[in-house]
Amino acid sequence: MKKTVNLTAILLLLATLLVACRSTAVSSQSSSESTEGKKTITVGFSQLGAESDWRSTNTESMLTALSEENGYTLIYKNGQQKQANQITALRMFIQQDVDYIVLAPETETGWDFVLQEAKDAGIPVIIVDRRVDVTDRSLYTCWVGSDFELEGQKMAAWIHDYTTMQNIAPEDIHIVHIQGTLGSTAQLGRTRGLTNAVREYGWDLLAQESGDFTEVRGKEVMAEFLRQYDNINIVYCENDNEAIGAIEAIEAAGKKVGSNIAAGEIMVVSFDGINEKAMDYLKEGKISCIAECNPLHGPRVQDLIEMIEAGETPAKYNYVNETLFSSVSEIKQVTVDGKSYEVTLVN
Ligand code: GZL
Ligand code: ZN
Question: Does the Cβ of 239 fall within 6 Å of ligand 1?
Fold first, then answer.
């Protein structure tokens, strides 16, 4: 009898162990299950940096949308403005076999290899904000962001309409151009918008230099331009942080910013419309026009992931609609390639 008891005991012990390890397996499975028992989606998000107000608002939007309560496990990595750091982060996400990779790329080129590794690992990649320039576009599932060239074209159209209204001859428009991070889609598009207009209208483009989307560099570059040129009457800044820095340099040089070019004011235009100080400057007329660049991509990325989860195929390129902000009440809309765009008056 003793033998049988042992055998039964052993069988009982084995069964208990089996259930235990199965439940561990289940619980480890459930560790990726949120409290409501729904499977959480693990996302690796590589953000390019923290160079501007736009960027921090964008990061906040992404982290709020891809939150635990929304059913996500988010691994967030900030690249500190270095592509190498972003590539390292993507390799880590692949190692951890995340469900999705979301990439906000610093510049357009240099992504082919690491995105191929993600594809080989069967991990869908969503690009957000700036674009990647890869030979094989199947390396990413989709992109969401702004039409940066349209932003530039709308701004150039606004400058043309405004200066025409002020009866300023094209050859008397002397522009300095503070560019964004060279090679980023935002810089490439906004620069194309201006340089095409310079060629089309015959404006005098005095100089171009990157301010890297930061206030410090915007101020340094503007101070340099003021030392080189005494006839600047328009400053085309590729984001608000640069514009704030440029205005500091202009006022430090004893000059006045404003839209009254004929009276010798220097007209500043910019992009983003996030930074509170820049929006105040817009109301005061220190900045004459800001092309909106909407950073709230969190909910948009969440929608894209949920579409993919539901087995649907999202559009490859998902553009956000944006406006022009201006305090110059006479210009209520601008036309680009025959299409008209409302101007949102801010005062
Ligand atoms: C545009 C974004 C740019 C912003 C800048 O979508 O990539 O980068 O315009 C930011 O403010 O630094
Ligand atoms: Zn002149």
Answer: yes
Annotate 232-245 with b (16+ C-beta within 10 A) or e (fewer).
bbbbbbbbbbbbbb
* pLDDT(1) > 80: no
Q: What is the CATH number of the domain that holds 340?
A: 3.40.50.2300
Provide the 3-class DSSP secondary structure of residue 135. Answer: coil
Rounded alpha-carbon distances, angstroms, from residue 113 to 98, 107, 157: 18, 15, 39
Dist CA 98 CA 89 (whole Å): 12
Q: Which long-range contacts (CB under 8 A, 24 or more apart) does 114-118 make?
A: 114/87, 114/90, 115/90, 115/139, 115/140, 117/90, 117/91, 118/90, 118/93, 118/94
The whole-angstrom separation of Cα 150 and Cα 97 is 37
> Quick check: CB of 90 below 6 Å from ligand 1?
no
What's the pTM value of the predicted model, to 2 decimals? 0.87
Confidence of residue 182 (pLDDT cuts 50, 70, 90): very high
Nearest ligand (C-alpha, residue 230) = 2
Q: Are residues 140 and 269 in the same domain?
A: no
Is 99 part of any domain?
yes
Residue 23 lies in a domain: no
| Of 185, 88, 73, the residue nearest 128 (C-alpha) | 185
* Cβ of 286 less than 6 Å from ligand 1: no
Q: What is the pLDDT of residues 202-259, one digit of tens each?
A: 999 999 999 999 999 999 999 999 999 999 999 999 999 999 999 999 999 999 999 9
- Give the closest ligand to the alpha carbon of residue 173: 2
Write out the residues surrounding ion ligand 2, Cβ under 5 A.
172
Q: Give the chain's domain count.
A: 2
Mean pLDDT of all residues in the chain? 92
Q: What is the pLDDT of residue 39?
A: 79
Which residue range forms the structural domain that includes residue 117? 41-146+295-319
